[in-house]
């Protein structure tokens, strides 16, 4: 690369590109026998953080992909405020993660598979849009939804077949 030239940027509008990276993280979680959810945080077309669930590995109920990615992105930018960032998650975030996304002031949430039973971004709860919070998150669901849902379904089918919880 020539001196003074910046590396090429990824198209910020490419939700599918970032969701595919989140799916890669989810597949890695699947191989580690974690619930296969992946998250990616990007700003200005650059990925700041990537994570998959690590609840079982870390024996920590809060080690969801979104929480781990928020921690990584905060370290990368040197601030807990992730203004101007977008988070891409393979499944609609749970209430804990939706709250963390809003509190971190992430500008945009893009998720794949919806979670009508317990989703925190409009499925069961609308935490990312809650009027009582000082920040609302622009939210888009359904990006690569079928692929995201198929990965989750495959994981739970395999778990049931193995006789696990």
Explain how this protein is built.
The protein is α/β, with parallel strands linked by helices. Helix content is 36%, strand content 18%. The protein has a five-stranded mixed beta sheet.
Number of helices: 5
What low-confidence regions span 5 or more consecutive residues with pLDDT below 50? none
The end-to-end span amounts to 51 Å
Shape: globular
Biggest sheet, open or closed, and with what strands and sense?
A: 5 strands, mixed
Global Rg: 16 Å
Mean pLDDT: 93
Q: Helix amount, in percent?
A: 25-40%
Order the strands across the largest sheet as they lie in space.
2-1-3-4-5
Helix and strand arrangement:
Elements lengths: L14 H17 L6 E6 L2 E7 L2 H4 L6 H13 L7 E7 L3 H9 L4 E6 L24 E4 L3 H17 L4
Parallel strand pairs: 3-4, 4-5
Antiparallel strand pairs: 1-2, 1-3
Structure described in brief:
This protein has 165 residues and is of the alpha/beta class. It is built from five helices and five strands; from the N terminus they run αββααβαββα.
Name the descriptors.
36% helix, 5 helices, alpha/beta, globular, 5-stranded mixed beta sheet, 165 residues
